[in-house]
Amino acid sequence: MTEASAIAGPRMSRPRDCLATGVCAGLAAHLGWPPVVVRLAFAVTALLGGAGVLLYLWLWALTPWEPGEARPSRRAPVAWLLVAASALVLGFAWMLGAQALGTGNATVQWWFGAVLAGVALAVGAGAWASFIDRPEPERGPRHELTIRLVATGLLAVTALALVLGDAASRHTVASFTAALAAIVGIALVYAPTLVTAWRDLTEERTKRIREEQRSEIAAHLHDSVLQTLALIQNRAGATSEVARIARAQERELRDWLFDGEAPADRDLGTELRAFAADLEIEYAVTIDVVAVGTSSERASGEVAAAAREAMLNAARHAGGEVSVYLEASPELVEVFVRDRGPGFDPAEVPGDRLGVRQSIIGRMRRAGGSAEVRRGVGGVGTEVRLRFPAERAATVERATGDMNRG
Amino acid sequence: MAEASARPTHDGAVRVVIVDDHSIFRSGLKADLDASIEVVGEAHDVESAVQAVTDAAPDVVLLDVHLPGVGVPAGTSGGAEVIRRAAAALRQAQDGAVPATRFLALSVSDRAEDVVGVIRAGARGYITKGSSGADVSRAVHAVASGDAVFSPKLAGFVLDAFGAAGGETAAASDELDRLSAREQEVMRLIARGYAYKEVAAELFISTKTVETHVSAVLRKLQLSSRHELTAWANARRLL
């Protein structure tokens, strides 16, 4: 950062292994002072109208953790200290009330303030346990529960003492307000859990509603849009442009409705189906892809490349209806691409036409499989047949994997 | 095959009932079917379909898989329910004789899961709604004369479901849970886009023999208790 370079020394940060928040240690390291001095300075300035407290909170909020992966861990049991402080303040208030409740309004104000401070400290202890201690592995949910129970006990006793004690008769409004504050305090101690539970509940409900809506939409679209798209294909003739667009739309809609998101790593069947969909948009062709068995062959493999080439040839030169059949067994992957076009004799293809010779036959041979181009049954169209032994595919894959690792 | 003998048709035309909940689709299909097919009834839901089929006793029912209707048990498609109810009603009307009416499923999707339920309920084949009028007409004639209509997709599904890719082959011809080597060959060729005639030429057998094999496979598809078939259907609650 350009501004940072103007300042001498590193940016201030809080150490991840700290006492309570790491503010003092961080500031000490930044200024080059011993941490004790910084802590003392904060304590002293805290007495000057709370300036130290404000500065401390401000630094706590704005100073980042020092860079690193470790979860911050705190040596001081801050939640317990807060509980203890709360108990002390409430005890002090009780003494104050017992001693001097007859004397005058000034004492009552002090007493009232002390009770509120005690309640606030107890709530703070609960909040600290819920938000800051809970993620720490050595403290966790059990610790949170203990703190909560202790804080609850403290606040409940306070509320009871306020309602049943002497103060209730003499300063009714003040003591009942304070008791109410204690009860609200109990609610606040448990608020994080309640909020989380409520959020989970709403989320679940939203999810369910969304799911219901989705299936409703799916049913509706199935009945209306998909039917209409089928009708369009039917009426417009299978290879007309309108029909091809309708078919592509139908496929997209169906994928969205029923299949959700496609997996990132496609297998051969999925890949050929997607490629067929692309070809159908570009050429006057309908391609039926039938896949049998589960293929370990990946979309990036040589078989896929050769099959794509064969499909492209069929779409470009034959058009009409093209059938693609893929059968994968543990030993063998076979792909058949069959069209009903004018057909051609591979022997008559001139040597400079690289398409079939290089991209299909040559490619398969180099990869360790075989390819065969032949005239369709009864002299109609062409059929390309690719064979690829699957163990070979597995070993090739392993070899490339080793290479990548090494 | 005894059951393959075609029922004599009136005026030489195949009598057909079209069942689909979309009137546009029904009228479109009606206009597209060729002259040798006579539409003798139409229906738009399960109840009207059972009624129309019982009244007309057609040769072939063109049946939408996804059909609305009251009282369709949960987990059944409307199409499968029509086949069950109509077959029972026809049998009753004809004093227990096996009805000659055959069902050809029409599905908007070519997902095997959508289709296996109606096939197992008794349909003699299925075609997608995107098929041309000529294709549908051809399929109607095939079904009317007792043949099964297998699309490449259905053939692929059958090969998958019967474990053909894993090398499973029936040892005996009456085994229901696996396909014989010959049936596998026929299914593979159909999956590769071969018409029955082309399958016959490729395997040096008669078209009739191909049809026999296909009918045998259809029977296995309907009767087999193979885990894949029941599991598929159960998972999608089609049976």
From TrEMBL, chain A:
Keyword terms: Kinase, Membrane, Transferase, Transmembrane, Transmembrane helix, Two-component regulatory system
SUPFAM superfamilies reported for this sequence: ATPase domain of HSP90 chaperone/DNA topoisomerase II/histidine kinase
Lineage: superkingdom: Bacteria
Domain Histidine kinase/HSP90-like ATPase: 296-354
Domain Phage shock protein PspC N-terminal: 12-64
Membrane-spanning residues: 36-58, 78-98, 110-133, 145-164, 176-198
Any one biological process term the GO annotation gives: phosphorelay signal transduction system
Keyword GTP-binding found: no
Protein name: Signal transduction histidine kinase
Organism, scientific name: Agromyces terreus
Automatic annotation (TrEMBL), chain B:
Pfam families: GerE (PF00196), Response_reg (PF00072)
InterPro entries the UniProt entry points to: CheY-like_superfamily, NreC/VraR/RcsB-like_REC, Sig_transdc_resp-reg_C-effctor, Sig_transdc_resp-reg_receiver, Tscrpt_reg_LuxR_C, WalR-like
4-aspartylphosphate: modified positions: D64
Domain HTH luxR-type, chain residue ranges per copy: 172-237
One Gene Ontology molecular-function label: DNA binding
Keywords: DNA-binding, Phosphoprotein
Superkingdom per UniProt: Bacteria
Span of domain Response regulatory: 15-144
One example of a Gene Ontology biological process annotation: phosphorelay signal transduction system
This protein's name: DNA-binding NarL/FixJ family response regulator
Originating organism: Agromyces terreus
